[in-house]
Specification:
By secondary structure, the chain is mostly helical. The protein is built from 4 helices and no strands.
Amino acid sequence: MSHARRGKVLFIPGTNPQRFDDSHAAAAQRERKARWILSGSILGGLALFGAGVTLSQREESAGIRLLPARERQTLYARTLDELSTICRGVAATGGELRDHCVAQARFLLELPECDDACQRAAAAVLPHARR
């Protein structure tokens, strides 16, 4: 067995080593609590953001469905015609016209009148995912 040297632990007079350990533990506990509060706040904020986006989309869809049937049908026919003519041309492959056509296609898909032919026309204009 080897002989280990024993050292002396020195303390500053008037300090209590137990109090130092307690204050260190209390500081660590406060830090953990602060991390939990920060994490909870971030998660809460993300949840509120998600709820706001969902409600916004619902309101938009509800507004479309609340239109009188005749106006909605007229709007549908005009938008589908625009999508089938203007948005299928070469000029609609880029720029602001492209953005407008994509918005029109997404709008058409929200209408309850959008049948299979309408969905195919919208799909032809919407950007596709690339691998």
